């Protein structure tokens, strides 16, 4: 009885906090560079399909336009990525390419979606890439460019966490990078570099990155996340600890956002590419397994479906109101700005929050990520060092 009462008051209390803490949209354009917690500027908004000016997206001429568009979703064979592929097929995007580390798994999903009548034959295609393997990333980029002359929707979605003892390896890639650091961050960084000219020559052009609210659990020592510095190789190896793996997950999800913001800055106001990091919500997928050959039963009774998990990405790809916007993070539910909470080193309070409150606050939020994602000098250093380690940087000077 007392438990029910407490839970009930908890829900009422969070509802009140929720209602009173939604900031109004900024009246004028937020100044660059980027927002910060002090100036606010985060708000609840309509989903893309509720925006009046977007009503034509699913009717008439727009359908014909989407029919010529090309999308690439890394990790599109399972979980949230598959949920995104389903929605893009339904909307009529002409070509939807999904990747897996196994070409067979990608093809299996292609067959399934065609047989279920969700995607048309030829509309969805499977390709292979292991993002932790930089040669494999080069091969995908070359193959993609030889097959397609544009890329309108690039969804950097693949990723996961490596549970010690579950992941078959290799735990360290050829270049010496730990698998999770390479797979969740560095491989996506390289793929972005290799496809950027193709994206730039495409209209429309949108990039969405599936990050996570877990990025709030980032380490205090950002320097240790730079690819040429001390990122800890032992942390998430198959023989590491679970805590180490979760820490590394939080770190890589942080790096995705920092990378997105740096790209926004580098492209500046002259580019037509809109780049948006997102959180999908707490979604029931294979993510806890850490071993791609095994499927885990959903561990989260309050988790939502991959269809829900696709919503922020679709907003990033199609919303008119987010076009050209920088510095935002899309969340599918309200959350407090977590650094104000007593945040454990692993962001457990963040996860607990997401778990308990996402359903009652579900909606589209142009939200602020961790303030350190806006650290301009870190972003710049991360970008430059990443270019260097993937072999795309300027030749090192002999001085
Ligand atoms: N589920 C959640 O609650 C949640 C919450 C926040 C953020 N996310 C993020 O959402 C994204 C999708 O995860 P999910 O929940 O849908 O998990 P999932 O069902 O395990 O799907 C992960 C996808 O990523 C691919 N992948 C993983 N590591 C890869 C690598 N090194 N190279 C290439 N592809 C790789 C997998 O392909 P194969 O295994 O077939 O190779 C699979 O298609 C991830 O970035 C995750 O961090 C999920
Ligand atoms: C942060 O990490 C760097 C690189 O690993 C290390 O050299 C430095 O000592 C660390 N700083 C602190 C305060 O721990
Ligand atoms: C863990 O794995 C790495 C790379 O696979 C290896 O170099 C290291 O020795 C292993 N550590 C232990 C304690 O087994």
What is this structure's SSE topology?
Blueprint lengths: L1 H20 L21 E3 L14 H7 L3 E4 L5 H13 L3 E6 L2 H13 L8 E5 L5 H14 L5 E4 L22 H22 L5 E5 L31 H26 L6 E5 L27 H4 L1 H8 L10 E5 L14 H10 L4 E6 L8 H14 L10
Parallel strand pairs: 2-3, 2-5, 3-4, 5-6, 6-7
Antiparallel strand pairs: 1-9, 8-9
Helix pairs in contact: 5-6, 6-7, 7-11
Bound molecules: NADP nicotinamide-adenine-dinucleotide phosphate and 2-acetamido-2-deoxy-beta-D-glucopyranose (2 copies).
One 2-acetamido-2-deoxy-beta-D-glucopyranose binds next to loops.
Keywords: Oxidoreductase, Signal
Organism: Nitzschia inconspicua
InterPro entries: SDR_fam
How would you characterize the overall build of this protein?
By secondary structure, the chain is α/β, with parallel strands linked by helices. It has one domain (39-393): NAD(P)-binding Rossmann-like Domain (Rossmann fold). Helix content is 38%, strand content 11%. The protein has helices at 2-21, 60-66, 79-91, 103-115, 134-147, 179-200, 242-267, 306-309, 311-318, 348-357, 376-389, and strands spanning 43-45, 70-73, 95-100, 124-128, 153-156, 206-210, 274-278, 329-333, 362-367. The strands form two sheets. It has a six-stranded parallel beta sheet with strand order 4-3-2-5-6-7, sandwiched between helices. The protein has a three-stranded antiparallel beta sheet with strand order 1-9-8, with helices on one face. α4 (103-115) links the parallel β3 (95-100) and β4 (124-128).
